[in-house]
Design goal:
Layout: H1 2-22, H2 27-32, H3 35-38, E1 47-48, H4 50-53, E2 55-62, H5 64-85, E3 90-96, E4 100-105, H6 111-121, E5 125-131, E6 134-139, H7 141-166, E7 172-176, E8 180-186, H8 191-199, E9 204-208, H9 214-217, E10 223-224, H10 228-234, E11 243-251, E12 257-266, E13 271-272, E14 276-283, E15 289-295, H11 297-309, E16 315-319, E17 322-325, E18 337-340, H12 346-358, E19 365-373, H13 375-428, E20 432-433, H14 435-464, H15 469-501, H16 505-536
Parallel strand pairs: 1-20
Antiparallel strand pairs: 2-8, 2-19, 3-4, 4-6, 5-6, 7-8, 9-13, 9-16, 10-12, 11-12, 14-15, 15-18, 16-17
Helix pairs in contact: 1-13, 1-16, 5-7, 7-8, 7-12, 13-14, 13-16, 14-15, 14-16, 15-16
Length: 545
Amino acid sequence: MKKVQARLLLVLVLTVLSVYLAIPSWPGIHDSLPDNFKWIIPPRGVSLGLDLQGGIHMVLEVEEDRAVEIAVDRSARAMKDLLAEKGIEVKEVSRKDGVNITIELSGVDNVEETANLIRESYPSYSQASKEGEILVYELNSDDIERIKNGAINQALETIRNRIDEFGVTEPLLQRQGRNQIVIQLPGVKDPKRAKELIQSTAILEFKMVDEDNGPRLALPVQVEIAQEDALRVQFASKVSEGSEILFEPIASDEGRPVYSRPWLVFADAALTGDVLQDARVSIGDFSEPMVSVTFDSKGAEEFDRITGANVGRRMGIVLDGTVYSAPNINERIRGGRAQITGAFTTDEANDLAIVLRAGALPAPMKTLQDLTVGPSLGRDSIEKGLKTTVIAGLFVLLFMMVYYRLSGVVANAAVGLNLICLFGALSGLNATLTLPGIAGIILTIGMGVDSNVLIFERIREELRQGRPIRLAVDAGYDKAFLTIVDSHVTTLITGMALFVFGSGPIKGFAVTLCLGIGINLFTAFIGTKVVFDLVNRKKIDSLSI
């Protein structure tokens, strides 16, 4: 008696809990609740996958060789600063042939000192050759491989941080092959903005404007959009070594760039964005959006030194090779704070702050596949999936009622309980429902019916042998137990393998399958058994089976 009551209570509790967890997945029901009750309802339920609600599917490739070149360029600048700090005069320190750094000294007197200094400070580089005052260093192969793998892992983490701040629900982001990244963003409303945010390299640099050579060059005040490269070619012979021409887009009142303003800046950055600690959108004096950046302790110290040494000069704030602004340094700036102003909208300012907070990509990304899935495909898939589920369910329910009579009704109730608990579990886990996941639900219905068929056939055999109804029911459940558990365990192993080794929609199918198996065992051996136990308490003479 107590066991029956305990099982009945367990069934009722799980049913109520499943309905409670499933409420957020039905916006109509959730919105109709009084405001006083909404705070106790979970904030999220089941999310629809890319194939059901549309979104973005992209395959990006990290340009590994470019990542190595960027790392070598950074080492070359660091070597130049180190030699200057030690008082060793050099003519040039630059990257050659991808992974080599050439150091050309002003004379042969400091060759040995330089070789020893580089060997101690940069163990990742081996001396490839030495001819007079020219030293050539080559990056070791193990370090090349390390940089390539690190670039891919850093790209994954950076893109993940950007997507998280963009606010996409249940994104898929995973590595594919050696240097490819698969991205799926379900339900994105602005695909163009999301793609630009993901693929933006976001290399932030602070470069001093070359005001000594700028007037001599006599650059035009402005150039037409798309004529920047032509201007660079025109002034290529006049630009002094160590300087370059960059452009600042100037926008109209509507926010669209109408022309570009050329700036002559030093090629070497005075400060880079890797010392940033935070970036936030703020509003200027004229209600224009701008990005306020905060440096870490090292960056704040460097920014303080740079601004103090360049009072009265202009500093260009450069992102991905584009000048956003070139403010005049009126005084030394302490505290490690700066502002980036430019011709961008509020959304563009927000996106810029996101990519600066998340960090720069370690290398450019090449787009191998770019698909935008429309929501109409998702609605069609949902309608077909629901129609298939309803048709299959009705046929199964009708068969059970006709063939097993009232016992079939009990089995049908167990299938309904199975679906309620399954949907509640998916909602509680904030799972993503895909089209293969709907297929897994349909398969769960079939397995639930199959379990009850095995139990009912065992009960029939016991009744044919003349056993009392109560003993026949107990024996039917006991004899079917091992067979049902065996079939469910083997299927569960398959589902777990699909979850571990599969990806995307395959995992969605595996999740619904594994949850359905566990819930089906509960409904088959506890949900229906408690009904038969309650009926047997009345000492009936026959069983409708």
